[in-house]
Amino acid sequence: MRPLETLPPTETLEIENGLSLVPRVKLNLTIHPSLPSVSKPIDEWQLKRALIDFLKTSLSVSVTVPEEDLQIKRLKDLKKRKRDEPVAHGALFIRDIRFLSSKKKIEEVDNEEEDVKELEKKFLEWRSYVAEKMDGIELNLEGVKYNLSVEIPASDDFGRMRKDWEESYAFRNRGYSRGGRQEPDTIVLRGVPSRWFAEPRVSSKPSMLVTHTIFSTFGKIRNLNVSEDEDLAKGMDEDELDIGIVSGLHCKIIVQFEKYRDFYNALKVLCGRSLQKQGSRLSADYEVTWDKDGFFRNSRSQNQEKSSKMQEPAAVRYRSEASRREPHVSEFTSNDTRRKRFKE
Predict the structure, then answer these.
(1) For labelling, which of 102, 157, 187, 329 has a CA lying 20 to 30 Å from the CA of 231?
(2) Spatial CB neighbours of 324, under 8 Å, sequence gap ≥ 6
(3) pLDDT tens digits along 278-309
(4) What is the number of helices (H) and of strands (E) in the chain?
């Protein structure tokens, strides 16, 4: 496998277990009515057609998006809608971005890094251009006007995440001279199919061994946690669960790397890509971020606390219990003694 530092954002990366990380652009969509008092449900099919036509005709390069890559969910009951709430939301996926790839072949290794930076800049600029071009457009559907809001998801914005952790760790590193500089090392991946990380013909649940093998592609792993991603489906209604999120079928993976460099490269490569499995037509449009909560650090401290309680000798626990009862008894005894002496 080629070094991750030399992987352009427009190129597919094949990893273990028949999995591939395929580049794409994802944009979050929110639709508000121009008049807050609208009572007619939005026509989902017409909305999709209007957006698909816009992408074909209004950009510098015509973009063709299949209908299944435009996910729209309407607000079910408009009567319960507040005036400032949207009538629909969703996501747009642009998967064919081959036109952004450099046409020239890289002949010298010295120029490879430069070429990757050039492609990265081109990709980021084009993504921002599409988001800005779509944001704020007015859609006229069956005589009703709607306003479209578009934004790049936080989990797809590596630059924003990097800025967040640099600011966070700059604050944590103040006054740290003896322990050395702290840096993030853990990524959190949500919304990937459990069966893709399971042992074939053994179980449909994700396997630690398989997951470790897959993520070792990015570097040496210090800690790993794999669990069913039940939290992802909490608080969602039936319509929202249709957007590729089904409780129990997806898993949450937390990977702590030994080196900051491996963490950095892994997160950068995972940003702006979808996961595909050989032989499957499904694309897993996961969410990825860095661990802000110190998952393994907190788990370790909790385990140490439990362990110390279990290993505490019985005699020490007995003395501890006795000492908690002592103050009341001793106070009574000493006061009683002092009272008698005073009377005498």
Answers:
(1) 157
(2) none
(3) 988 889 999 999 999 999 987 665 555 555 55
(4) 8, 13
- For the sheet containing 88-94, what is the strand order? 70-74, 88-94, 25-33, 144-151, 138-141
User: b vs e for 287-323, b when ≥16 Cβ sit within 10 Å of the residue's Cβ?
Assistant: bbbbbeeeebeeeeeeeeeeeeeeeeeeeeeeeeeee
* Spatial distance between the Cα atoms of 273 and 275, rounded to a whole number of angstroms: 7
Rounded Cα distance between 15 and 218, Å, is 9
Question: What are 189's two structure tokens?
Answer: 């991946």
> Which one-letter DSSP state was computed for residue 250?
E
Give me the residue spans of the domains in the chain: 1-152, 159-293
Give SS3 for 170: helix
User: What one-character-per-residue DSSP string does 27-75 give?
Assistant: EEEEEEESSTT--SPP-HHHHHHHHHHHHHHSSSS-----GGGEEEEE-
User: What is d(CA 183, CA 189) in angstroms, rounded to the nearest whole number?
Assistant: 19
Bridging pattern class, strands 273-277 and 19-23: antiparallel
pTM: 0.79
For β-strands 70-74 and 25-33, DSSP reports them as unpaired
329 pLDDT higher than 50: no
Provide the token pair at 336. 């009683």
Cα–Cα distance for residue pair 48/148, rounded to 1 Å: 12
117 near 13, Cβ under 8 Å?
Answer: no
Residues in Cβ contact with 229 at an 8 Å cutoff, skipping those fewer than 6 apart: 190, 191, 250, 251, 252
Superfamily of the domain at 159-293 = RRM (RNA recognition motif) domain (3.30.70.330)
DSSP SS3 for 154: helix
Provide the mean pLDDT of the chain: 82
> Using N-to-C axis directions, what is the helix angle for 158-172 and 260-270, rounded to 10°?
150
